[in-house]
């Protein structure tokens, strides 16, 4: 059975169905059912996935399908997943039904700060189309196909921000699109150059690994890919589109934007930048790690200074993307696996934060922190879930984000001591931005305009519940996810030809290992 | 020197299911938090039952351990793989961890019971018990874990519980701020602990106690010193030692049982546990050990001085807690003999300080939550049980002969004296100050004229509160002698921390011992002169420079504000400005420049962008085609 094609086809067909049905309510229900079908299919596929096969080159990508697409140029419809891609697809398909349920009234024009009513059906159809593309971008094993998905993803997201967002939506949407297109164009040039220089007559990723040998060529091509991914992720200093986009997007779209779309950037660094251009990656590592560490601290400090909840969360994400980039470029098993897991955990954690904030804004009609206060008193469940999500944002042990942040830092420390120490100060800043926001919104005397706010209703609890269960479950039992990720990361690192830092009890050998 | 015993896997009996100690209170917390208002009626009872059940498991495991040969008393209980290749979740049941487990669940259960009465009028009592259960669970994970990652999970877990409980009355801004401050200051310590764990990992390739302690003596001196200092930074955060002490006094915003359990008896002693547990590193790194003792002495003096100036009974006790943990930290920096005294003092302190905090709570309960001792006075006659138990705790802490504190604190002082006379004498001075400020507290509260506010009708607390007080005060009397005489506790602890060849013997009439007693007597007499015999003004007099210094917590907060908070605020403002105007302004300006005019950009924003985007995609396709064509030529 062509698992991955099915996974993409179901939401596309679903999107058509959603746009055709008569009533808005039916459209929502259909969208939810379709996304749940995709979720179940993915779960079955994940069970059939064998992490052990990932170690061998031939069986690295499972559920692989390869068909010629544009034979003249060696472009294929090539899909397949290794452990890294699989967990990111899992992240996407888990988030989509949750976002659909959370966005139930976001296009209705109800709510205290809602934009004018727009087509409900279109919104949910766009969500499903986006889901197909998110699956495609992680599953693509053909570089050109990856590029196509990479760019095509922008379109549904552009409309979701531009048509359904807040007051500044068109400014934010355009900024988002222009930044992404700029990065995308650089990448396109690099993709084509890769094809031309490799002289393999194919865009298939496995066949392009290790082909480019010339160091200078590697460096240029690396930059083409890397800048695109750095804008997408976004890495400091390419980040300024994110706070606008995330703050203006409806909460559900913000979740997919920050939770999944941005991960394509970090995923791309891990998959393409490292494996296709290993020498260039090593050459640029000091630069990237510098940017990553600056991003961690800078994002956190600017987050502390925000007065708008959604912008604050967006800046925390910039800090978190710094951690992911650090983990990717530290090039150790722990850091790489930690970075991959970080991508997943951050999706759940920030997803929960954005959604709960969204519920709050829906009630009160403002995203300004100063408009709140004492919410805990009137809506204890909302406040409680907000706190759990927030604590996962500051990587509290026992929650999933701790595992990934710990692994990233531990793995980076194996190779880069000083940058890791600086990065670790981020854990202090994280406590400041999260707890200060919590204090200002949830604690203290209840603000006048907050007094009547209702607590989370049943639908909203179904939105937040699964995320919190996942955050806690992965916090205590990360092994299932790591078992999938680890062989894939090892494979990636072996393609980078880097001597992994072997941390062994042999104390004496430690000095200078892997430097 | 007898080395610690080997850690061997063990899976039989109660030890095999010792994870229940952690799981039961965790389950209690989960039920109470998820069950919501439905569990309001019986929530507090469930909380007590879960804590008691945990205590029973601890006692049974302890009994099982006593039945074993001392060399076999370090039992590892494997649970599950956590981060494959890095860390597992597993428990280490040994004399050190079981001592803590008994203290945490024993004193913890008493405080749970006491809280039934203390919190009976609070509409959120259920949530309070949920957090207390969560705390007990996390604290047990901290002390029972067999590796540093598991320890760290518990470490931050107790930090969370502490945050939630300090801010329990979160509608009070002061409580919310204090909770946040505690968490953030602790995170500074956690930063050190994290880097310490990373260094342990890169040095030894493991984070498991068994492996790293065996390999520790072979590592480089500098590395060991670094590890020691980093762990110490973590310990300073959790245990409110200088320079990370400032959060503890504010933490008194929490309900009094919380102050007793978390901020006196158990959580704040976690730093001492960490240092003692990591003895293998410290013993091989004398520099780090020396710093531990210096931090300990500095804090024991600072806490005592702060204690002298506080009129708020809880803050006075908090200063005292800092100071007493300073003694423990001093002991923890003195090797195996010091460890035994430090842990023994930690346990007896757990009893007498919990005793006094709960006593203070009982007083507040009867005085409309008044905490200002200048508005107390003469309470002895109206709350006899509270007063007598409090005074027993007081006698224990000042080291009144034959009471608990006498044995354990004296042990630390004598051991310090053997190592370093200066540290030893400073510790003696600290004991004298303790004699003063604790006597002051007792005189101001229970004796002298009644300075009550109008409408105060002090009364004795109900039995559910006084019975725990009585039990704790019994411990405050006898526990010290029981542990110290005949080196009983030292021998018990030996399999976990080692034992020197020459055991210390108890000299009741040594010079430092007599000097301590004399200074304490002077301190107490001075307090009697100032606060017992003389009239205590209801409004605090202005006081000298020194008094102000002490009242302001030795300017710790002012220092933090000047060094970190205000520069931090400026940095934040600068960064936000830079981000809005600098980077983003540059990009927007560039876009405008490319577009020719800003008007053009605005048009792009309002609808032309679709065609713009499409034209880019189209252009891209053309480029692709062209390049492919060129490539194929």
From TrEMBL, chain A:
<dbReference type="InterPro" id="IPR001750">
    <property type="entry name" value="ND/Mrp_TM"/>
</dbReference>
<feature type="transmembrane region" description="Helical">
    <location>
        <begin position="146"/>
        <end position="164"/>
    </location>
</feature>
<dbReference type="InterPro" id="IPR010227">
    <property type="entry name" value="NADH_Q_OxRdtase_chainM/4"/>
</dbReference>
<feature type="transmembrane region" description="Helical">
    <location>
        <begin position="374"/>
        <end position="396"/>
    </location>
</feature>
<keyword id="KW-0472">Membrane</keyword>
<keyword id="KW-0812">Transmembrane</keyword>
<dbReference type="GO" id="GO:0003954">
    <property type="term" value="F:NADH dehydrogenase activity"/>
</dbReference>
<dbReference type="GO" id="GO:0048039">
    <property type="term" value="F:ubiquinone binding"/>
</dbReference>
<feature type="transmembrane region" description="Helical">
    <location>
        <begin position="343"/>
        <end position="362"/>
    </location>
</feature>
<dbReference type="InterPro" id="IPR003918">
    <property type="entry name" value="NADH_UbQ_OxRdtase"/>
</dbReference>
<dbReference type="GO" id="GO:0012505">
    <property type="term" value="C:endomembrane system"/>
</dbReference>
<feature type="transmembrane region" description="Helical">
    <location>
        <begin position="69"/>
        <end position="102"/>
    </location>
</feature>
<dbReference type="GO" id="GO:0016020">
    <property type="term" value="C:membrane"/>
</dbReference>
<feature type="transmembrane region" description="Helical">
    <location>
        <begin position="245"/>
        <end position="264"/>
    </location>
</feature>
<feature type="transmembrane region" description="Helical">
    <location>
        <begin position="218"/>
        <end position="238"/>
    </location>
</feature>
<feature type="transmembrane region" description="Helical">
    <location>
        <begin position="312"/>
        <end position="331"/>
    </location>
</feature>
<dbReference type="GO" id="GO:0008137">
    <property type="term" value="F:NADH dehydrogenase (ubiquinone) activity"/>
</dbReference>
<dbReference type="GO" id="GO:0015990">
    <property type="term" value="P:electron transport coupled proton transport"/>
</dbReference>
<feature type="transmembrane region" description="Helical">
    <location>
        <begin position="6"/>
        <end position="23"/>
    </location>
</feature>
<dbReference type="GO" id="GO:0042773">
    <property type="term" value="P:ATP synthesis coupled electron transport"/>
</dbReference>
<keyword id="KW-1133">Transmembrane helix</keyword>
<feature type="transmembrane region" description="Helical">
    <location>
        <begin position="459"/>
        <end position="477"/>
    </location>
</feature>
UniProtKB/TrEMBL annotation, chain B:
<keyword id="KW-0472">Membrane</keyword>
<feature type="transmembrane region" description="Helical">
    <location>
        <begin position="191"/>
        <end position="209"/>
    </location>
</feature>
<feature type="transmembrane region" description="Helical">
    <location>
        <begin position="422"/>
        <end position="443"/>
    </location>
</feature>
<feature type="domain" description="NADH-Ubiquinone oxidoreductase (complex I) chain 5 N-terminal">
    <location>
        <begin position="87"/>
        <end position="129"/>
    </location>
</feature>
<dbReference type="InterPro" id="IPR001750">
    <property type="entry name" value="ND/Mrp_TM"/>
</dbReference>
<dbReference type="GO" id="GO:0003954">
    <property type="term" value="F:NADH dehydrogenase activity"/>
</dbReference>
<feature type="transmembrane region" description="Helical">
    <location>
        <begin position="288"/>
        <end position="309"/>
    </location>
</feature>
<dbReference type="GO" id="GO:0008137">
    <property type="term" value="F:NADH dehydrogenase (ubiquinone) activity"/>
</dbReference>
<feature type="domain" description="NADH:quinone oxidoreductase/Mrp antiporter transmembrane">
    <location>
        <begin position="145"/>
        <end position="434"/>
    </location>
</feature>
<feature type="transmembrane region" description="Helical">
    <location>
        <begin position="463"/>
        <end position="486"/>
    </location>
</feature>
<dbReference type="InterPro" id="IPR003945">
    <property type="entry name" value="NU5C-like"/>
</dbReference>
<dbReference type="GO" id="GO:0042773">
    <property type="term" value="P:ATP synthesis coupled electron transport"/>
</dbReference>
<dbReference type="GO" id="GO:0015990">
    <property type="term" value="P:electron transport coupled proton transport"/>
</dbReference>
<feature type="transmembrane region" description="Helical">
    <location>
        <begin position="612"/>
        <end position="631"/>
    </location>
</feature>
<dbReference type="GO" id="GO:0012505">
    <property type="term" value="C:endomembrane system"/>
</dbReference>
<feature type="transmembrane region" description="Helical">
    <location>
        <begin position="151"/>
        <end position="171"/>
    </location>
</feature>
<dbReference type="Pfam" id="PF00662">
    <property type="entry name" value="Proton_antipo_N"/>
</dbReference>
<feature type="transmembrane region" description="Helical">
    <location>
        <begin position="506"/>
        <end position="529"/>
    </location>
</feature>
<feature type="transmembrane region" description="Helical">
    <location>
        <begin position="128"/>
        <end position="145"/>
    </location>
</feature>
<dbReference type="GO" id="GO:0016020">
    <property type="term" value="C:membrane"/>
</dbReference>
<feature type="transmembrane region" description="Helical">
    <location>
        <begin position="45"/>
        <end position="66"/>
    </location>
</feature>
<feature type="transmembrane region" description="Helical">
    <location>
        <begin position="12"/>
        <end position="33"/>
    </location>
</feature>
């Amino acid at each position: 059975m062509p698992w991955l094609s099915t996974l993409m086809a179901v939401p596309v067909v679903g999107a058509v169905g959603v746009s055709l049905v008569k009533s808005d309510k039916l459209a929502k229900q259909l969208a939810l059912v379709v996304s749940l079908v995709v979720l179940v299919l993915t779960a079955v596929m994940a069970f059939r996935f064998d992490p052990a096969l990932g170690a061998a080159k031939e069986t690295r990508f499972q559920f692989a399908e390869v068909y010629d697409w544009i034979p003249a140029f060696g472009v294929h419809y090539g899909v397949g997943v290794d452990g890294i891609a699989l967990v990111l697809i899992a992240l996407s398909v888990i988030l989509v039904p949750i976002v659909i349920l959370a966005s139930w009234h976001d296009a209705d024009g109800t709510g205290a700060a809602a934009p004018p009513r727009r087509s409900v059906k279109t919104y949910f159809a766009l969500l499903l189309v986006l889901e197909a593309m998110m699956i495609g971008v992680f599953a693509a094993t053909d570089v050109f196909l990856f590029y196509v998905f990479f760019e095509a993803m922008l379109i549904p997201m552009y409309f979701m921000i531009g048509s359904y967002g807040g007051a500044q939506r068109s400014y934010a949407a355009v900024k988002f699109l222009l930044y992404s297109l700029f990065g995308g164009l650089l990448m396109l040039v690099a993709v084509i150059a890769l094809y031309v220089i490799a002289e393999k007559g194919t865009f298939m990723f496995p066949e392009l690994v290790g082909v480019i040998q010339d160091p200078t060529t590697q460096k240029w091509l690396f930059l083409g890919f890397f800048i695109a991914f750095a804008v997408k992720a976004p890495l400091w200093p390419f980040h300024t589109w994110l706070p606008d986009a995330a703050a203006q997007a409806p909460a559900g779209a913000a979740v997919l934007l920050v939770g999944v779309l941005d991960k394509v950037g970090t995923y791309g660094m891990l998959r393409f930048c490292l494996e296709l251009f290993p020498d260039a990656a090593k050459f640029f590592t000091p630069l990237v790690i510098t940017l990553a560490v600056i991003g961690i601290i800078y994002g956190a400090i600017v987050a502390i200074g925000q007065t708008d909840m959604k912008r604050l969360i967006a800046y925390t994400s910039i800090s978190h993307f710094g951690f992911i980039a650090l983990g990717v470029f530290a090039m150790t098993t722990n850091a790489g696996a930690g970075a991959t897991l970080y991508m997943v955990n951050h999706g759940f954690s920030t997803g929960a934060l954005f959604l709960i904030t969204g519920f709050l804004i829906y009630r009160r009609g403002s995203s300004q922190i100063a408009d709140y206060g004492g919410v805990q008193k009137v809506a204890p469940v909302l406040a409680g879930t907000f706190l759990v999500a927030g604590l996962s944002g500051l990587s509290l042990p026992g929650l999933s984000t701790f595992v990934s942040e710990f692994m990233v830092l531990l793995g980076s420390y194996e190779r880069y001591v000083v940058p890791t120490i600086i990065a670790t100060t981020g854990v202090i800043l994280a406590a400041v931005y999260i707890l200060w926001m919590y204090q200002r919104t949830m604690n203290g005397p209840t603000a006048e305009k907050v007094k009547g706010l209702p607590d989370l209703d049943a639908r909203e609890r179904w939105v937040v519940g699964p995320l919190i269960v996942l955050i806690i479950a992965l916090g205590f039992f990360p092994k299932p996810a790591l078992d999938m990720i680890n062989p894939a990361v090892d494979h990636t690192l072996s393609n980078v030809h880097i001597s992994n830092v072997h941390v062994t009890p042999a104390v004496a050998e430690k000095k200078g290992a892997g430097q | 020197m007898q080395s610690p015993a080997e850690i061997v896997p063990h899976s039989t009996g109660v030890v095999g299911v010792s994870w229940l100690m952690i799981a039961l209170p965790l389950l209690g917390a989960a039920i109470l938090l998820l069950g919501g208002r439905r569990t309001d009626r019986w929530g507090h009872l469930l909380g007590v039952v879960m804590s008691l059940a945990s205590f029973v498991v601890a006692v049974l495991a302890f009994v099982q351990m006593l039945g074993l040969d001392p060399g076999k008393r370090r039992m590892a209980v494997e649970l599950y793989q956590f981060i494959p290749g890095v860390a597992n979740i597993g428990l280490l049941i040994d004399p050190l961890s079981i001592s803590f487990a008994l203290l945490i669940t024993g004193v913890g259960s008493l405080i749970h019971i006491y809280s039934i009465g203390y919190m009976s009028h609070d509409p959120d009592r259920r949530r309070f018990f949920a957090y207390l259960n969560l705390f007990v669970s996390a604290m047990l994970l901290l002390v029972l874990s067999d590796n540093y990652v598991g320890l760290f999970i518990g470490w931050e877990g107790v930090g969370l519980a502490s945050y939630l409980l300090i801010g329990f009355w979160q509608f009070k801004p002061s409580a919310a701020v204090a909770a946040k401050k505690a968490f953030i200051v602790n995170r500074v310590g956690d930063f050190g602990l994290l880097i310490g764990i990373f260094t342990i990992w890169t040095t030894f390739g493991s984070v498991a106690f068994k492996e790293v302690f065996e390999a520790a003596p072979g590592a480089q001196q500098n590395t060991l010193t670094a590890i020691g200092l980093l762990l110490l930074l973590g310990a300073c955060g959790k245990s409110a030692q200088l320079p990370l002490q400032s959060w503890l006094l504010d933490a008194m915003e929490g309900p009094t049982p919380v102050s007793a359990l978390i901020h006196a008896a158990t959580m704040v002693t976690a730093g001492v546990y960490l240092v003692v547990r990591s003895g293998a590193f410290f013993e091989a790194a004398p520099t780090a050990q020396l710093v531990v003792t210096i931090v300990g002495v500095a804090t024991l003096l600072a806490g005592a001085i702060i204690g002298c100036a506080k009129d708020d009974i809880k803050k006075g006790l908090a200063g005292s807690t800092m100071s007493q943990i300073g003694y423990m930290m001093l002991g923890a920096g003195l090797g195996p003999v010091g460890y035994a005294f430090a842990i023994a003092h930690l346990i007896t302190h757990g009893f007498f300080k919990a005793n006094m905090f709960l006593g203070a709570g009982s007083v507040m309960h009867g005085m409309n939550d008044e905490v200002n001792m200048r508005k107390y006075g003469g309470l002895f006659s109206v709350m006899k049980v509270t007063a007598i138990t409090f005074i027993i705790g007081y006698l224990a802490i000042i080291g009144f002969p034959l009471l608990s504190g006498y044995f354990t604190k004296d042990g630390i002082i004598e051991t310090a004296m053997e190592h370093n006379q200066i540290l030893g004498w400073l510790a003696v001075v600290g004991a004298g100050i303790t004699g003063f400020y604790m006597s002051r507290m007792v005189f101001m509260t229970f004796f002298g004229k009644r300075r009550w506010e109008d409408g105060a009708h002090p009364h004795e607390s109900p039995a559910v509160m006084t019975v725990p007080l009585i039990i704790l005060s019994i411990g405050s009397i006898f526990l010290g002698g029981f542990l110290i005489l005949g080196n009983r506790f030292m021998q018990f602890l030996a399999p976990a921390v080692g034992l020197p060849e020459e055991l210390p013997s108890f000299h009741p009439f040594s010079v430092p011992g007599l000097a301590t007693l004399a200074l304490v007597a002077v301190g107490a007499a001075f307090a009697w002169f100032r606060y017992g015999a003389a009239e205590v003004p209801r409004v605090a007099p202005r006081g000298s420079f020194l008094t102000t210094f002490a009242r302001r917590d030795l300017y710790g907060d002012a220092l933090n504000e000047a060094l970190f908070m205000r520069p931090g605020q400026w940095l934040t403002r600068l960064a936000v400005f830079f981000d809005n105007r600098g980077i983003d302004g540059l990009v927007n300006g560039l876009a405008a420049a490319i577009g020719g005019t800003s008007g053009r950009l605005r048009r792009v924003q309002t609808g032309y962008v679709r065609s713009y985007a499409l034209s880019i995609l189209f252009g891209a396709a053309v480029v692709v085609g062209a390049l492919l064509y060129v490539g194929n030529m």
